[in-house]
Specification:
By secondary structure, the protein is mainly alpha-helical. It has one domain: Amino acid/polyamine transporter I (Up-down Bundle), CATH 1.20.1740. About 75% of the residues lie in helices and about 5% in strands. It contains 20 helices and 5 strands. The strands form 2 sheets. Strands 2-1-5 form a 3-stranded mixed β-sheet, with no helix packed on it. Strand 3 and strand 4 form a beta hairpin. This is Sodium:alanine symporter family protein. Keywords: Cell membrane, Membrane, Symport, Transmembrane, Transmembrane helix, Transport. It is a multi-pass membrane protein. It comes from Hominiventricola filiformis. Belongs to the alanine or glycine:cation symporter (AGCS) (TC 2.A.25) family.
Length: about 475
């Protein structure tokens, strides 16, 4: 077992070395330039996200697609993930995580644009899209689309299910005394109730759950930042300084230099907002939208809320808490989850409960969102006949996830993130001329209807099966 763990850790270090970091951040910067700094349109994008576009084709509303995507991104990556980044990479990782989000807005916009542009409609009226269809229809590279779908389907069991249920089980057992096997069974049961209803059922639940859980958690962070107000500016200075050089700060905080901070900051940033991974565009492709740019802007707000706002607040909460409470011995903290728990303990009486219910809601919503991503990728590879077996296996993984070692699961999730991000980033970069053309065409006329018909995908063989 030790040999396997060592191999997985070495593989994680390999896929998340400098080449991957350069590819990811480089794509973020290239897309920022190609889209003319699309981040400047974030205000317009937020307005569009709460505007219905019922005149257009699609299965769910623009907000429903966004909520489904946010459900999968606003998860344990925002809470435990940021804590893990600080624990392993030092406070400087927070800056790289945040910058990954700022520039990642452009990549999320770009990958969602091509997902909508190259989407197809099944014979039973369902919208299908994502990196696999962009690679197949936009670049005639179906083989690479199959590779993306293969890795994404497997990733759904790790990043989307096992890590999330494991996190739920950990907080429920430590704070509420609930046995892990019971937590796994409960999550599996409630997941089954939703995912068998498809995207409409998933988006309906996410539309109600996401705004509530995000507001609930952000208010908790705001209270802690008020409590730690005197350490806010020193924390910001520490984060920026330790992002580039090794050193130490108050509360036992240390930074190992730019490579460590970059590694864990970028890795957790991608895990958190999924910009460049190709997952969220799968939900974007199902949206009712009159042109690709309109939904691409809406999708881009997901990265803004997830990383630029929520992850930044979490990072500041953790760093200010450690600097304020000198009794926290950072060398004795076992993992990022414990670090986050100690920070929320500062809110008398209700602090631990805010964290507990925040993790439960965040993680459960991620389980739902990733179930949809996995379904679409499995259907792309194997056809509609594979959906029921996939759903059953997904539920089984949810049931047994609490007994899996969390650190190992996080590492495997990191590896799968990188492996599915590579073909998606290839699609984004090679289709950048299309992205620029579509942006120029619609960015100043967002109400314009696309005159391109959505092709119908024949699924009669899978339906019979």
């Amino acid at each position: 077992m030790e040999m396997i763990v060592n191999f997985i850790n070495e593989l994680d270090g390999l896929v998340w070395g400098w080449p991957m970091i350069i590819l990811l951040l480089g794509t973020h910067i290239v897309m920022t330039v190609c889209t003319g700094g699309i981040q400047r349109k974030i205000g317009t994008a937020i307005k569009l996200s709460v505007t219905k576009d019922t005149e257009a084709e699609g299965e769910v509303s623009q907000f429903g697609a966004l909520a489904t995507a946010l459900a999968s991104t606003i998860g344990t990556g925002n809470i435990i993930g940021v804590g893990t980044a600080i624990y392993l990479g030092g406070p400087g990782a927070v800056l790289w995580c945040w910058l990954t989000g700022v520039f990642g807005i452009a990549t999320k916009y770009a990958e969602s644009l091509i997902a909508v542009k190259y989407r197809v409609k099944t014979s039973d009226g369902r919208m299908q899209g994502g990196a696999m269809y962009a690679l197949e229809r936009g670049l005639n590279m179906k083989w690479l689309g199959l590779i993306f779908a293969f890795f994404a389907a497997f990733a759904s069991f790790g990043i989307g299910c096992a890590t999330q249920v494991n996190a739920i089980a950990t907080v429920c057992t430590e704070n509420l005394g609930i046995p892990t096997w019971l937590v796994g069974g409960a999550v599996a049961f409630f997941t089954a109730l939703v995912i068998f209803g498809g995207i409409k059922s998933i988006s309906s639940v996410c539309e109600k759950l996401v705004p509530f859980m995000a507001l609930f958690y952000v208010l908790g962070c705001f209270v802690i930042l008020c409590i730690n107000g005197d350490f806010l500016l020193p924390a910001l200075k520490t984060i920026v300084t330790l992002a580039f050089q090794p050193g130490a700060a108050a509360g036992g905080l240390t930074g190992g230099g730019i490579m460590l901070a970059l590694h864990y900051g970028v890795a957790r940033g991608l895990f958190s907002n999924e910009s460049g991974m190709g997952s969220a565009p799968i939900a974007a492709a199902a949206a009712q939208t009159r042109n690709p740019v309109r939904q691409a802007l809406v999708s881009a707000t997901g990265t803004f809320w997830d990383t630029v706002v929520v992850c930044a607040m979490t990072g500041l909460v953790l760093v200010t808490s450690i600097m304020k409470n000198s009794n926290i011995d950072i060398s004795r903290v076992e993992n990022g989850g414990v670090l986050t728990t100690l920070a929320f303990d500062q809110i008398p009486y209700i602090g631990p409960m805010i964290l507990v219910f925040g993790i439960i809601l965040f993680a459960y919503s991620t389980v739902l969102g990733w179930a949809y991503y996995g379904e679409r990728c499995v259907e792309y590879c194997l056809g509609k006949k594979a959906l029921v077996p996939y759903r059953v296996l997904y539920i089984v993984v949810a049931a047994i996830a609490p007994v899996v070692a969390l650190d190992l699961v996080w590492t495997i999730a990191d590896i799968l993130n990188a492996l599915m991000a590579i073909p998606n980033l290839v699609a984004v970069l090679l289709l950048s001329p299309v992205i620029m053309k579509e942006t120029r065409k619609y960015i100043n006329n967002l109400d314009a209807h696309s005159n391109e018909a959505v092709p119908v995908l024949n699924t009669e063989k899978e339906d019979v099966a």
